[in-house]
Amino acid sequence: MNSPTYRLNPVAIGGVGGSGTRLVANILTKAGCYLGGDLNGAFDNLWFTVLLRRKSWFKQLPHDHHIRDAIKVFQLAMSTGLANGQLSVHQQAIFEQAIQDFDWPNNPEKQRLARAVDSLRHSQSADTETFLRWGWKEPNTHIFLPHLAETIPDLKYIHVIRNGLDMAFSTNQNQPLNWGKFILNANLGETISPISSLDYWIKANHRAIEIGRRKFGENFHLLSYDALCKSPDKTLPPLLDFLGMPTDPAPYIPLIAPKTLGRHKTEDLTIFSKEQKQAVHDLIQHL
């Protein structure tokens, strides 16, 4: 089977969990992007989740070629599908290892993800006559930016960033729990404090921005969720232009309905150091 041909480059959406990637995925879906055959309510591509968000990788990432191999299996699933014997013996072993490595016991979505494994195993190619491009949204994508740049060289990447003070008080602390050891080189324990959460936000976003600009160049787009919500008429046209689409923001503005912007204003910010607050200010100023 020949790989289907999409009209535009593939695109991925990532960011620290809770940054607003769901809204961006909703916008891209409306714009004609195929973001996967099995998505959860947050528009996360569960095939990417199963193949790359592995428990055994949280403490230490494996050799680069293991990650690239997993990405190639994911890319194959999103293009021609894994049904009909598309996987080589080596790729089949990678697929089965990913299922074994996944953090099944501690995942509240384990039943939903088990169904995603089955849909991944029987995946078929998407109808490229319907979609402009293929891609995915999965917040953890930013962890694997160096490997994605090497494996999918024409990939466009959108990194969504939201005010770190809001993020520090979010109930979504899955990324610091899972990747805190990798990003901060420290064990954060089972409960993430706002201070630790903000440390993770600062380091993870600095890393993603540096790698994105260096590895992706013009195929990297940094998007402020706060600006998108407050001024969509100004923020949407550059995003749509980056995607090679008509830049009229009108069709997408009704999708934007923020509910938790500025939640840090009711919290005690004296718990954060002067250096942390300055780092947040510096990151936001450059958006």
Describe this structure in words.
- With 287 residues, this protein is α/β, with parallel strands linked by helices.
- The protein has one domain (11-222, 259-285).
- It has 13 helices and five strands.
- It has a five-stranded parallel β-sheet, sandwiched between helices.
- Helix 2 runs antiparallel to helix 4 (64-79), helix 9 (174-184) packs across helix 10 and helix 10 packs parallel to helix 13.
**Quick check: average pLDDT?**
90
How many helices in DSSP terms?
13
Strand content: 5-15%
Order of helices and strands: EHEHHHHHEHEHHHEHHH
Instruction: Using the CA coordinates, give the radius of gyration.
Output: 19 Å
Number of self-contained structural domains? 1
- Poorly predicted residue ranges: none
Strand order of the largest sheet: 2-3-1-4-5
- The coarse overall form would be globular
The main β sheet shows up as: 5 strands, parallel
Helix content: 40-55%
Q: By helix and strand content, what is the structural category?
A: alpha/beta
Cα distance spanning the termini:
43 Å
Quick one: how many beta strands?
5
Quickly list its features.
8% strand, globular, 13 helices, single chain
Q: Care to give the gist of this entry?
A:
The protein has helices at residues 21-30, 46-52, 55-58, 64-79, 89-101, 110-121, 145-151, 164-168, 174-184, 194-216, 225-230, 232-242, 274-285; strands spanning 11-14, 33-34, 133-137, 156-161, 220-224. It is α/β, with parallel strands linked by helices. The radius of gyration is 19 Å and the shape is globular.
